Amino acid sequence: MTSITQAGPAVSAGPAAPRPASRKTVDKRKWLEIGLFLGPAVIIFVGFVILPVALAAVYSFFNWNGLGPLEKFIGIDNYTRALSDPLFLRSIGNNFTIIIASLLVQGPLAIIVALLLNRKMRGRTIVRAAIFVPYVLAEVIAGLSWKLLLSPQGGVNAVLEAIGLGGLTQPWLANPAIALWVMFFILTWKYLGFAVLLMLAGLQGVPEELTEAAAIDGASWWKTQWYITIPLLGPTIRIWAFLSIIGSLQLFDMVWVTTRGGPVGATSTMATYMIQYGQGQPGYGSAVAVILFLISLVIALLYQRHALRRDLGAENVEER
Description:
Blueprint: H1 23-59, H2 77-83, H3 86-117, H4 124-136, H5 139-149, H6 155-162, H7 179-203, H8 208-216, H9 221-232, H10 234-249, H11 253-258, H12 270-278, H13 282-319
Helix pairs in contact: 1-13, 2-13, 3-7, 3-10, 4-7, 7-10, 8-9, 10-13, 12-13
Domain ABC transmembrane type-1: 92-303
Pfam families: BPD_transp_1 (PF00528)
InterPro entries: ABC_transporter_permease (IPR051393), MetI-like (IPR000515), MetI-like_sf (IPR035906)
């Protein structure tokens, strides 16, 4: 007897599994995403940083009036003219005087104020507002306000007269002997809030366990700050110092509004000199701009090599 086996119903294989994307497709997608994110930033950076610097470098080798084609090539004459001009050399000296004064005065003052404001004390909110408000004011408004206050008929001389110190009244911004230091006082008033803000942010990263342990060991508050808190503020202090140096090198608006670099160049900076003597002489102004750019670049590279790498290396060690 022959047995007959019936076949069961056919089993459907179902939809085929999707094939994994090839490595080439994944790479293309990755580079497309990178391009979409970085492309606009690169275009803006090239258009507003690289291209202007390159054009300024080209213009600096020509005696150009800003109109028409570049025709008269003069080599490095614009550079030698600037570096042999006593007023430009004085402007460089003024920039570095402000840098040194900022590091010696603004930095320590900002640290002290930040340490005090980091404590629980009465009136802390009012003091913070008094320090931060000048920083958020527009430079033009702040500069014009001080120009009016320090004029011969301004509020400062009026107050001195009222309290019987009329012998101290003088044209504060028109006296070459003190104009630069008066300008430095204005700059300190204006930008101290930014330095304090950075220091306060840095203080939030100081472990409370260390200060509490020092207090238990009998260390005074000032000794705790000097031996524990301030050393741990090192990265923040170096960041502020770098920003302060670059800002002092590029100082323009406050000086231009208050004194326009006067009297007789007493408050002139490289930026005000560039605007004042580069008008109508774009080639010469470009040479001054390139010198300013190179000085700033050298300082930035030194900071990156000696300070930034040190701070990043310390962070990597802590993470490990």
